[in-house]
Amino acid sequence: MGVVKKVIYRxxxxxxxxxxxxxxxxxxxxIHIHYRDLRIELSRAEFEEFSAAFNSQSxxxxxxxxxxxxxxxxxxxxxxxxxRIWTESRLSTDVKYHPRRISLEDxxxxxxxxxxxxxxxxxxxxxxxxxxIFSSVDIDAPYARSYDEVLQLIKDxxxxxxxxxxxxPGKILGLKVAKYHLPKVRDIFQYIGxxxxxxxxxxxxxxxxxxxxxxxxxxxxxxxxxKIREYSDSYRLFDFISKNKNSISVDxxxxxxSQVVDLYYTVKSGTVVNVESDPECWLYxxxxxxVIYPYSSSGLSGAKDADALYKKWSAxxxxxxxxxxxxxKKSFDKKYQNELYEKILSTIKNNVATKSAVERVWIxxxxxxxxxxxxxxxxxxxxxxxxxxxxxxxxxIDPTREADxxxxxxxxxxxSSNKCAVYHLEQIPIxxxxxxxxxxxxxxxxxxxxxxxxxYFPSRGFSKERDAFLxxxxxxxxxxxxxxGVIHSSGKLGELSRIVAEHYPLxxxxxxxxxxxxxxxxxxxxxxQGIYLLKLFKVSGNYPQSRVxxxxxxxxxxxxxxxxxxxKTAKIVPVKTGGVLKVNDHPALLFEFLPGVIxxxxxxxxxxxxxxxxxxxxxxxxxxxxxxxxxxxxxTAKIWLDAYPGYLELADRSESLKLSFDIMNRVYDxxxxxxxxxxxSKGVEILHNHGDVASKNIMIxxxxxxxxxxxxxxxxxxxxxxxxxxFELSMxxxxxxxxxxxxxxxxxxxxxxxxxxxKAEEKNIHYWVVLLGLIKFTKEIRVMVSGDKSGxxxxxxxxxxxxxxxxx
Length: 808
Known about the structure:
Blueprint: E1 23-27, E2 31-35, E3 38-42, H1 44-68, E4 102-107, E5 110-115, E6 118-122, H2 124-136, H3 147-156, E7 161-163, E8 172-178, H4 182-191, E9 195-199, E10 202-206, E11 211-217, H5 222-230, E12 235-236, H6 237-243, H7 250-268, E13 273-275, E14 283-285, E15 290-292, E16 295-300, H8 303-319, E17 329-331, H9 334-351, E18 358-364, H10 365-369, E19 373-381, E20 384-388, E21 391-397, E22 410-413, E23 421-428, H11 435-440, E24 446-447, E25 449-456, H12 463-472, E26 476-480, H13 481-484, H14 492-503, E27 510-513, E28 521-527, E29 530-536, H15 548-564, E30 572-573, E31 581-583, E32 586-592, H16 606-622, H17 633-643, H18 655-671, H19 674-680, E33 686-689, E34 698-701, E35 704-707, E36 714-717, H20 718-731, H21 742-754, H22 759-763, H23 765-787, H24 792-807
Parallel strand pairs: 8-11, 20-24, 21-25
Antiparallel strand pairs: 1-2, 2-3, 3-6, 4-5, 5-6, 7-8, 9-10, 10-11, 12-14, 13-16, 14-15, 17-19, 18-21, 18-26, 19-20, 22-23, 23-25, 27-28, 28-29, 29-32, 30-32, 31-32, 33-36, 34-35
Helix pairs in contact: 7-8, 16-21, 17-23, 18-23, 18-24, 20-21, 20-23, 23-24
């Protein structure tokens, strides 16, 4: 920049934000270059000369920018080395149009200020402000004379300096100036009429009322002055926002908000942050666009502090009306727009259209227009920071599949203004490097190209609102199942869909993964014939891993026999060729899908559970099932009784574990003898047990309980099933605070009401409770050892031990 002799008028927020964002050329009565609010008129000869010079010089300068890693602004490296490109700089053509004109015009699109061949477009507010400024300025006002005036003039010229030791505020101005800015300082004082002398290598500039001593700094580089300036002009954040609300850019607003969101996530992560929690006390450095949080000895940490901080911040954001402000965007080039569009279509077809609930998909917005890009600052949307354009779609749900909307779709809003629900599905990575933002905002999840879905549920109505929305945004239908049929994904789920369709009598098969707590793989299967459940068996239950496939055949036969006896459960669909299907060497069974709900958390319908279990048992008592006794309770008991001694050393981990092991040690000898098991089994009802009587394996439909998942089934005393249910319902799955062994006796008594125990069972019930309690205690300890961060398994083990202790 040139040397500023006097700032006649300056106000960085006097005008409104620029209205125009275009750069284009046109030919009318002459050739025009339009850049935002500026228009330059050129003749053909002038334009040809301008184009040639600009093309040559811009290439040269761009190379220098790349080589030197140039950064914008007076605080980056612009002052270190001036660069002038003089290639083809001398213009041979004269200004043809209006070389001496000045004109002010009131036009249809605003006010035009013509100066020679340049036209500047102003709106009414800006033009009136400009006329007020011109009428108020005094161009004959004296140059800087006093200490404060001269110091401000040095700053206005962006001189790199510090105040020297010779400085006496208000009287003598002592400056230590960067060596590369000494010529500029000399020119400043020459222009404003100061006399120049030298004293002992110190340049002295003397005016009417002020003497200035200037020395040069040999050591500091522009980066040093950058740091100094960063902290020289700070403001209270909301004072700055209030004062500059009309001039601060949308990018800078989002950058400020991004930093606050990053502070929120830092605190939420549990890191102790010693900063002031009141946003009204925060500072802002315009030079570096950084928010400064003053120190506070009261550290912030955890979700509660983070939410309280964000609540205060949000209130001020609303008060100053800087909430939903979109930053500027840099659009991708045409070639990549086309590539990205194809990638978007592929992703939606493979990951959205393949879902059973999806009937139709529409695309709109930037993706449909092929105007995708990256934001010049993160787009702050609540606590989400978006780096790139969203991919806006509308999904129409099959009216018969509304309950099957994928669980991994993240619900944001149950009903938006267009009467659709809003879900966030997944992201497509941005092509450009996002490392800068990751370093600047290290604690914040950064969103790239988000697939933002409006989801239309037909049962809610509002079809007119849906159609109006699609028309308004010129949406394009990219998938229609009624026309294109079922689409299989290209990955594992697509392969499973093809396998199921090949081996079972089903049409239009779609397989979707289920989020269930099991080491086996469970999938939901949709077809024209109905909904099913596919289970791939990978791990064993209460039997060795080597017998997984053998147990699957046992489960297949057992369920078939139970169904023949009228027991309600999930029926198995046979493969076309008979037998059991194998998928990637894992045996698999396809079950009919049971309607209803699973009550994993109390309150449980204990009466329905016990009634259903008694029906399963009575069906066998009245009609014995003839199956080989391949999996017995004796085998299961031996596995866990043999394992128990191996965990005794864990008693030294804590006093509570020692107490629990002491309890179980006292009963171990009384139940560990398998001969005693055989003796006590005489006279009891022996049948095929479900093997895992937990609420997670019981479906409730219209008050009726239905057992499913016979993965742990075995042949043995029925009382094991009954007591297993009593233990599991008492321990309430994963809900530690709901453990309550009063449910134990309620369940046993409820079962007795439907299927009374015989004399042998009643006589030895204490033995069976202790035996099963020891087995369950050992199972909990085994899982605890393998990794139980929540402490659930240890708490369940203590509960079992305490219950066993209460019986003696």
